Amino acid sequence: MNATELFSSSRAFELWMYTVSHAQLLIRSNKGGTQTSRVELLFKDVSLIHIGTVMRGISVEIVPLERFVTLDAAKHKIHDRNIYQISSSDFTGYIVASAFVVHEDEREFNEPSGMLEGQPLVTRHIT
Fold first, then answer.
1. d(CA 36, CA 12)
2. How many beta carbons lie within 10 A of that of residue 37, not counting itself?
3. What's the pLDDT tens digit per position in 45-66?
4. Phi and psi of 8, rounded to 5°?
5. Res 117: pLDDT
6. C-alpha to C-alpha distances, 65 to 11, 13, 62, 71, 83, nearest whole angstrom
C-alpha cells in the first residue's frame, strides 16, 4: 500500500491544543503577514503523537503500518486507526488517529476553533 497525501501547505503551523475529551489534537496556522485566513488541522481519537511543536510547511499523508518499524511496540495503540505521517521542512513524525479534518476561516488568533466550539478552550497546567 502506498502513502496517500491528504493535505499540503507551505505555511507555518503550530501544535495548538490537545484535549483529553475525545482525544483531539489541533494544529493551527494563524493569520498574519500575507496570510488572510487561518487553517486548522484536527485529528480525532488520537492514540499516539510524535511531531514537532512548530512546523514550517506541512504535509499530511496516510501511510501503511509497515512503513513504521518504530511503531511495532505500539501496535496495540493503533487498532482501527490511521497512521498520519506529518512532514515539515526539518522533521518527519506521525499521529495515530481515527479521523483528520481541515478547516479554513478568517477568525483571529484568540478566537476559538470553529471545529471545537462548545468545548472549553482554557486549559489547566499541571506542574
1. 14
2. 12
3. 999 999 999 999 999 999 887 7
4. -150, 140
5. 60
6. 28, 25, 10, 8, 7
In this structure, are residues 63 and 14 in contact, taking their beta carbons and an 8 Å threshold? no
The reply to whether the predicted model has a pTM over 0.90 is: no
Cell digits of residue 71: 511503531
Listed residue (56, 112, 110, 64) closest to 85, CA to CA: 64
| CA–CA separation, 106 and 81 (whole Å) | 31
Backbone angles phi, psi at 75, to 5 degrees: -55, -30
Instruction: Indicate if the pLDDT at residue 14 is higher than 50.
Output: yes
> Pairing between strand 4-19 and 24-29?
antiparallel
Beta-bridge partners for 82 = 97
